[in-house]
UniProtKB/TrEMBL annotation:
Keywords: ATP-binding, Helicase, Hydrolase, Isomerase, Nucleotide-binding
Ranges where the UvrD-like helicase ATP-binding domain occurs: 7-291
Domain UvrD-like helicase C-terminal: 292-547
CDD domains, per the entry: DEXQc_UvrD, SF1_C_UvrD
Source species: Pseudodesulfovibrio portus
Keyword Isomerase in annotation: yes
Family named by the database record: Belongs to the helicase family. UvrD subfamily.
Protein name per UniProt: DNA 3'-5' helicase
PANTHER family: DNA 3'-5' HELICASE, UVRD / RECB / PCRA DNA HELICASE FAMILY MEMBER
Lyase in keyword set: no
Its EC number(s): 5.6.2.4
Length: 713
DNA sequence: TACAACAGCTTTTTT
DNA sequence: AGCTGTTGTA
């Protein structure tokens, strides 16, 4: 089967796809078919006779790599088995594991997640007796922030504090001490954090020439996606892998650089042609995603940037509708208006083709409540990660104890549910368990006799230790043990958490050994990412929305201190990144873009609603690129007339259409039992005009639900 | 008196 | 969800 590349791609894309020999830098504007280009290039290489095993595809998330490989397989009609694809971190993890003895980890190593790193930081701090009783002492998260930033930007701690956290300067010596102690602790316990993966790989490739040559020979063709978000060490890794004359393609967009906070260096893109001699530069500027009015708005956002981007995206896709800027009275009514808008869009698009984006994870809370109440399913990306959720950590702590009985933090987690046992008692029990004398044994016997839950925990651990360490079986056993604890610990929402655990069990079943399972989970193990739910609205942080697109995009909380973030208002550099973030957010939209600017938001500190200032990214926009709607005190929306308008009068396409999604109506006269997608079976208690029901759901209590979301039984 | 339980407060972004 | 300060209990 032959693919008609010239027909499927535009000129620039074709050039990037067929330039397989030598270094290539592709500057790809938002929505310019970047993914398509990579996919077709994969296919082209294989069709030219390249062995798939000679290709390495480095992307920002593992999901992105898998998706691209799958799409290439689809158009090729053959498997790309053997192609290496994944994130820098996962590639590093695999390579380091295979060469552990070469980097001084003869007995292998354990990968830590962020929480582990922070906890070690804290215990190092405590051991050094630093910051005792000082309430304004930097928190463990701050300590870790500074340490990891210093590594990722390859600056001294001194320089990091100077540039980004001037107020922490008095703690400079402490930071240095803690950072050293942290590094030492990791070495002693054969632990690695995310940063170590990259730096140790760089070091390994630097000094081990045979390995470097071996990898260079193996990976004849290398592609790196999202190059604007790579940091210095990642750039060095690419150089090691490709050699200076390798066949390497980097794809990126300087206007979409949004990871400077973690050391990403846009200069990598500019340096690329200098490092790789004879680099061919290809620019993709035609946009295939968004209608022109949306691009008019996003181009305006870039106009305000201090760093000039000589980029002006254009599209053939027309629309007579401008993006909307809506000013709700408060963040509460904002949630309601967003729900209205989703209901409206739902008539035209599938739910998973609609997204609500925000700056930070917590900003969607009230919307999540509103969506649950009305019965719209949603899927959230960003914010608290799957493996960071408390119930997942509870279960994982048990696995950690099977792997390593000296893991004190895991013991604390595993005993957290035992009434009358706190951190001190756990430490005592821990000490007694690892001492072999009569006193300790007596103490243990006493405690086990006193706390039935402790006995059960130890029995379960013994059971797990005695059975073969197969992730699937272990998880199954654990879930049975953990079920009653889950229900007691999280009475409000345990069904949801249980679903998460079952998901974890499913994932575990796909692994044959424990270490790989745990490693993958810390690296990219968000199973929610894996399958995009069919019938659920997408809620996402802007960062997690990178590279994705939806027909309708709604961005909330566009006010000062939220978007841009309060933390970014100090330094011009940070504010510029917020602007690019805003650019990324708006360019996700294909047909509809709605920006919400609440006039007041709830402030937890003062406990009341406070007036806001609109985000500069909105106020800067010329009025010609959007339609403005204000929420009136009556709750409706009014279109504000523009100063200079000769446009057709306001379309009636506002939000005030009756929120009545199509679907089977429930017969009001028939009270009885019904079924709801989220709450399950319930008893209808009352009918509320015109189309709502009060239903009693076992485990959830009374809820008022719109008839369309109920199925009569 | 030591420790556990509870309530209240704050929350950027992520491999 | 974690940290801190406060209250409650053996």
């Amino acid at each position: 089967m032959s693919i008609d590349f010239a027909h499927e791609l535009n000129e620039a894309q074709l050039e990037a796809v067929t330039a397989t020999e030598g270094p290539v830098l592709v500057i790809a504007g938002a929505g310019s078919g970047k993914t398509r280009t990579i996919v077709y290039r994969l296919a082209h290489l294989v069709q030219q006779g390249v062995d798939p095993a000679q290709i390495l595809l480095l992307t920002f998330t593992r999901k992105a790599a898998q998706e691209m490989l799958a799409r290439a397989e689809a158009i090729l009609g053959r498997s790309l088995h053997g192609t290496s694809g994944g994130t820098f971190h996962s590639f590093a993890y695999a390579t380091l594991r295979a060469n552990a003895m070469d980097i001084g980890f003869e007995g292998g190593f354990t990968l830590m997640d962020r929480a582990d790193s922070e906890n070690i930081c804290k215990s190092v701090k405590d051991d050094l007796k630093l910051g005792k009783g000082d309430r304004s002492y930097p928190k463990k998260a701050t300590l870790m922030d500074v340490i990891t930033k210093s590594r990722n930007k390859e600056l001294t701690i001194d320089a990091v504090l100077e540039r980004e956290a001037y107020h922490l300067n008095p703690y400079l010596d402490d930071f240095t001490e803690i950072s050293d102690g942290y590094a030492k602790f990791k070495r002693q316990h054969a632990l690695m954090d995310y940063d170590d993966l990259l730096f140790l790989l760089d070091e390994l490739l630097e000094k081990n020439e045979p390995l470097r040559n071996q990898l260079q020979t193996r990976y004849k063709y290398i592609m790196v996606d999202e190059y604007q978000d790579t940091n210095l060490v990642q750039a060095r890794i690419v150089r090691h892998l490709a050699g200076t004359k390798g066949n390497v393609m980097a794809v990126g967009d300087d206007a979409q650089s949004i990871y400077a906070f973690r050391g990403a260096n846009v200069a990598n893109i500019l340096e690329f042609p200098k490092i790789f001699e004879g680099t061919k530069i290809v620019r993709l500027e035609k946009n295939y995603r968004s209608v022109q009015p949306i691009l008019d708005l996003t181009n305006e956002i870039l106009q305000g940037a201090t760093a000039r981007f000589d980029k002006n995206l254009y599209s053939d896709l027309k629309s007579d509708k401008l993006p909307q800027v809506i000013h709700p009275l408060s963040d509460q009514t904002q949630a309601r208006l967003v729900v209205d808008q989703i209901l409206k869009f739902q008539k035209k698009y599938l739910l998973h083709d609609i997204a609500v984006l925000f700056r930070a994870g917590y900003q969607s809370f009230s919307l999540e409540v509103a969506l649950t109440r009305i019965g719209i399913d949603y899927q959230k990306f960003g914010g608290i990660r799957f493996h960071e959720a408390a119930h997942i950590k509870d279960v994982l702590s048990m696995i950690r104890l099977v792997l390593n009985p000296h893991d004190l933090l895991a013991w604390q987690r595993a005993m957290d549910h035992i009434k009358g046992v706190g951190p001190k008692t756990v430490a005592k029990i821990y000490a007694a368990m690892h001492t072999k004398d009569g006193k300790s044994e007596k103490y243990l016997t006493k405690m086990v006799g006193k706390h039935e839950a402790l006995r059960e925990l130890l029995v379960e651990l013994d059971k797990l230790r005695s059975q073969p360490p197969k992730p699937g079986a272990v998880l199954e056993s654990l879930l049975v043990y953990y079920q009653p604890i889950l229900m007691e610990k999280y009475p409000d929402d345990y069904p949801k958490r249980q679903a998460g655990l079952e998901q974890l069990s499913q994932i575990a079943a796909g692994y044959s050994d424990m270490e790989t399972f745990i490693g993958d989970l810390s690296l990219d193990g968000d199973p929610d990412d894996e399958k995009r739910k069919e019938n659920a609205v997408v809620l996402s942080t802007v960062h997690s929305a990178k590279g994705l697109e939806w027909s309708a995009v709604i961005i909330i909380d566009l006010v000062e201190d939220r978007f841009p973030s309060r933390r970014a208002m100090q330094r011009a550099e940070d504010l510029e990144e917020e602007r690019r973030l805003m650019y990324v957010a708006c360019t996700r939209a294909k047909e509809h873009l709605t920006l919400l600017v609440p006039s007041s938001v709830f402030n937890r500190a003062s406990g009341m609603s406070e007036p806001t200032l609109p985000s500069p990214f909105v106020t800067e926009l010329p009025e010609t690129v959007y339609d403005r709607l204000n929420e009136s005190y009556g709750g409706g929306l009014e279109q504000r007339r523009k100063q200079v308008v000769s446009l057709p009068e306001p379309s009636t396409d506002t939000l005030m259409e009756e929120a009545a999604p199509s679907g089977p109506k429930v017969d009001p006269r028939k009270l009885g039992f019904c079924k709801h997608k989220i709450f399950g079976k319930g008893k209808i208690v009352a009918f509320i005009e015109p189309n709502k029901y009060r239903v009693n759901f076992p485990g959830f209590g009374l809820k008022v639900i719109i008839g369309d979301y109920l199925e009569l039984l």
